[in-house]
Amino acid sequence: MRALQLERLDGPEGLKLVDVPEPEAGDQVLIDVVAAGVSFPDLLLTQGKYQMKPPLPFVPGVDVAGVVRSAPPGAGVKAGDKVMAFTLLGGWADVVAAPPGMTFRIPEGWSFEAAAGTVMNYHTAYFALHKRGRLRTGETVLIHGGAGGLGTAAVQVARGSGARVFAVVSTEDKAEVARSAGADRAFLSSGDWVSRVMDATKGKGVGMVFDSVGGDIFDQSLKCLAPEGRLLVVGFAGGRIPEVKVNRLLLNNLDVVGVAWGAFVTQKPQLTSEISKALAALADKGFVEPLVGKVFPLEQAAQALRELESRQATGKVVLRLREG
């Protein structure tokens, strides 16, 4: 089968299209991949900067959508089902084996492209906002990177959970994407967005910040949290891992909360089913509907990764492998 394999830790340039044997099914769900998500962890993996460092060569790809070829007993899906799955590795290939507990039927009416970037982003968003952030109905949530795949997922989950949603983005075009995802307000990161957030909350600040950017954004976010506010540390797309002086937390009774969905569900896999049901309910109500950005053929995965690296991407960037 075709697979896009990382042969060198040179970033996207280390990828090469190769022929490799198809995976063995074992106790996994075997999926003929139609579309695969392109994510920030994929980019970090190609650079050797992700916390997981698989030996070279390996096939990246954490999210896929496709058709089940075979499934073990009790998997919850069967041959012929259209599914989306979290694979961690191996998704950028014609066929992939996925854990049964991380494989879900695609909701009616969704395209394979929409489903391809759903599991990691939406499960992460729900886990962050509800399990780690303890989101309360009526709170105001500020979401950084609100036009990207993870950001739009967080916007939709927060709005579907009854929150007022603000987004911080880098351009006016991205502000429009964030608003189309459901954000009530969108602020440009190049301006004095902290003052604008404080004005929009009449000086009270927001109850929660969803931060997948890090760096200076993290430092500024502490300034617009309301007393007892929570800052969710989801990632560091900006490149710099920030530090915090804890006296700033003490003065306003603030929480800085770590969010690592993948690590958590590895230890407590039963949470996956709970989150899946909650997201399905939000999808039924029209709140969860993935925004697809650019779609590339498998051969152009390096270009897709560069879209993420340059912060040009909006919505979920996807690879198309075959017709569904």
UniProtKB/TrEMBL annotation:
Cellular component, GO annotation: cytosol
Superkingdom as given in the UniProt entry: Bacteria
GO molecular-function terms, A-Z: mRNA 3'-UTR AU-rich region binding; NADPH binding; quinone reductase (NADPH) activity; zinc ion binding
Keyword NADP carried by entry: yes
Cross-referenced PROSITE patterns: QOR_ZETA_CRYSTAL
Signal peptide: none
SMART domains: PKS_ER (SM00829)
UniProt xrefs under InterPro entries: ADH-like_C, ADH-like_N, ER, GroES-like_sf, NAD(P)-bd_dom_sf, Quin_OxRdtase/zeta-crystal_CS
Enoyl reductase (ER) domain location: 11-319
SUPFAM superfamilies hit by this protein: GroES-like (SSF50129), NAD(P)-binding Rossmann-fold domains (SSF51735)
Keyword annotations: NADP, Oxidoreductase
Protein name: FadB4
Source organism of this protein record: Archangium gephyra
